[in-house]
Amino acid sequence: MSTNRDNIADDHSDIIKVVDFRPFLDGSNKEIVANALLESFKTVGFVYLVNHGLSQEKIDGMFEMSKQFFALPHAQKMLAPHPPSGTHHRGYSAPGAEKVVQHLYDRGEISEARKRTDVKESFEVGREDDNLMPNIWFPEDILPGFREICLKFFWDCFEVEKNILRALAIGFGLSEDYFAKVHIKPDNQLRLLHYPSISTSALLNEEVSRIDAHSDFGSITLLFQDDIGGLEVQGPNSDKFIPVRPIPGSLLLNAGDLLMRWSNDTIKSTIHRVRAPPFTKSETTPDRYSIPYDLETVVDCVPTTWNADTPKKYEPISAKDYIMRRLAASY
Ligand SMILES: O=C(O)CCC(=O)C(=O)O
Ligand SMILES: [Fe+2]
């Protein structure tokens, strides 16, 4: 039987670079960081950042809260239910509710894909004053502090994001605030994910999935992952997938569809998925927790990426229009 081991690349050492963000933050060498970041986005679409400015204590605190939330009884989690439509992406989704798909918009094709459930549960949070997608909370006494920690983490990630966007602008030879100034009121999404422990053979034989191959919708995703592994990204110019090993203290960045479009396709929005961690021997694949933070915005091709010989491929698009279309297909 074919398994998901068949299309794993053999040599995956150091394809995804580790970039030390400190010289950008302390101002000692902004350009070297900016160039390394942009180069990684252009070649593989993913990069690890270390010394990114967000304390390990805050990251650990968010993971701890996330674990406590997912450990609650189902009925309590369902007091903050994700609405039936994918376009209000907030609150709790039980395993099977969300099925991430790659550019499927036909209802028949979507229901075919949904037959292979994503065995994961999630909780999505945005900014409190987002009228388009209001947050959905359960009563505070069910898990005191959950709401506060989620919102603090949301805004802490926004600070990291602004520095990343500044570095990206420098990489493109633009003014430092080029990207940051259109992310003033972030329509961002903090996503707590829990992949419950599951039979390894069911994952390997593709009876179920953790998250199927997809690209992210927004401009950039900041991804925090625990030490279990299982995330894989498609290698440059290849259909093989590369396991992305967890690196303690790092933050994984990846470019999404909108940044690809914004950069006139010079940056890659790379397909990725979550499967059984590499070399798993045990019959049961353990629980895995991850926390993606997705950035969203308004997009037109960056000036230095197009000219008379290489014209713009895309017209400007609002992030909202693009993302609503893709979210609607996920539920
Ligand atoms: O859990 C992960 O590591 C990846 C999650 C992901 O790709 C997503 O939520 O878009
Ligand atoms: Fe993703």
Automatic annotation (TrEMBL):
UniProt entry keywords in alphabetical sequence: Iron, Metal-binding, Oxidoreductase
Keyword Endoplasmic reticulum assigned: no
One GO MF term attached to the UniProt entry: oxidoreductase activity
Name of this protein: Fe2OG dioxygenase domain-containing protein
Stated family: Belongs to the iron/ascorbate-dependent oxidoreductase family.
Pfam families: 2OG-FeII_Oxy, DIOX_N
Highest taxon of the lineage: Eukaryota
Gene3D superfamilies named in the record: B-lactam Antibiotic, Isopenicillin N Synthase, Chain
PANTHER family xref list: FI07970P-RELATED, OXIDOREDUCTASE, 2OG-FE II OXYGENASE FAMILY PROTEIN
InterPro entries (UniProt xref): DIOX_N (IPR026992), IPNS-like_FE2OG_OXY (IPR044861), IPNS-like_sf (IPR027443), Oxoglu/Fe-dep_dioxygenase_dom (IPR005123)
Domain Fe2OG dioxygenase, chain residue ranges per copy: 186-297
